[in-house]
Amino acid sequence: MQTSLRAALIAGAMMLCAAAPAADVAAGVRLRIGTTPVILEDQVAFLRAWRSYLEARLQRSVEFVQRGNYQEITDLVSRGKLDFAWVCGYPFVRNRTAMRLLAVPLYHGRPVYQSYLIVPATDTRTRGFTDLRGRIFAYSDPNSNSGFLVPTYELLRAGEDPSTFYRKTFFTWGHRKVVQAVAAGLAQGGAVDGYVWETLALSEPALTGRTRVVRKSEEYGFPPLVARASIDERDFLAFQAVLVQMSSDPQGKPLLHQLNLDGFAREDIHVFDGIAQVMTFVDSRRPPQATR
Considering 106, 162, 175, 267, which has the largest number of Cβ atoms within 10 A of its Cβ? Predict the structure, then answer.
């Protein structure tokens, strides 16, 4: 498990990861699935294995397309350039008219996760966001719920202005890189996907051991798999069925194990109501030109 989890979270965002099939499995058009380094980082070996698994069950050719951030993947799905994508709940809620909810991962048996506020392990005094005034803070992606929206919400709710509260902020474009930045002292605080931090704690305890979790947020809908709005209904239902059945498939279980997930489930869109409420709160306090 140590090796597979480490491989599942290797640092480095590839601008394009196309595990291109040698030949179509069937006569149908190839299914294109988008991922980002926020969820799957440099996952060539895993994506190759998952592609083979999906092709065998869907009897369709599959191509994984990886981009460096959520915005690029969101734009591709919205323009119909991707059939499916693994995105964050924040861009899904923001662009729900351009996407259909396909399936939600189950982590510890539930379709939710948390945002973690982390600091260097040597910092034993920080207890929350407001203790980080005037320091350097690391975000993951501007369209990440756990890595940007939630920490912005927490400061606004405390009556602080996130644009002036810190001495400096920067985006790492990956949750593992947030952990690295805090562990190395490049940032005195950071917001990270709790699932990623916990998974790294299993595979790279020396890395997470140089950080300390200060605060865990409320629970929010786990980053979902979505489909473009115009997806063929047969393709939608077929892919959804394969994902949901992975947890009971002897060949699907090892793939889920590599991801440190229990499975995928059909979930109601209301699992993302918490993100929608946070987004509305943050938008109401941003200048009009800053609202996306």
Answer: 175
Give the tokens for residue 239: 């892919």
Write a three-state SS string for 195-262.
HHHHHHHHHCHHHHCCEEEEEECCCEECCCEEEECCCCHHHHHHHHHHHHHHHHCCCCHHHHHHHCCC
Query: What are the structural domains, with CATH classification, of the chain?
Result: 2-109+222-269 (3.40.190.10), 115-217 (3.40.190.10)
Q: What is the pTM of this model?
A: 0.86
Asked if 200 and 178 count as a contact pair (C-beta separation under 8 A), the reply is: no
68 closest CA partner among 125, 5, 13: 13
Q: At what angle do helices 194-203 and 175-183 cross, to 10 degrees?
A: 70
- Spell 226-251 as b/e; 16+ CB within 10 A means b: bbbeebeeebbebbbebbeebeeeee
Distance CA 195, CA 262 (A): 12
Q: How many other CB atoms are found less than 10 A from the CB of residue 209? A: 11
How far is C-alpha 88 from the chain's CA centre? 5
Place of tokens 């994506």: 47
Task: Please calculate the CA angle 199-282-169 and round it to the nearest 5 degrees.
Answer: 60
The label of the residue with tokens 């980080």 reads: 132
Ranking 8-17, 53-62, 265-274 by mean pLDDT, the lowest is: 8-17
61 neighbors 30 (Cβ within 8 angstroms): yes
**Residue environment code for 113-127, b if the CB has 16+ CB neighbours within 10 A, otherwise e:** bbbbbbbbeebeebe
Which of 61-70, 176-185, 215-224 is predicted with the least confidence, judged by mean pLDDT? Answer: 61-70
**Which of 157, 158, 160, 117 has the alpha carbon at shortest distance from 137?**
117
Q: What pLDDT, on the 0 to 100 scale, is given for residue 25? A: 35
- In this structure, is the dihedral angle defined by the CA atoms of residues 52, 54, 55 and 56, taken in order, positive or negative? positive
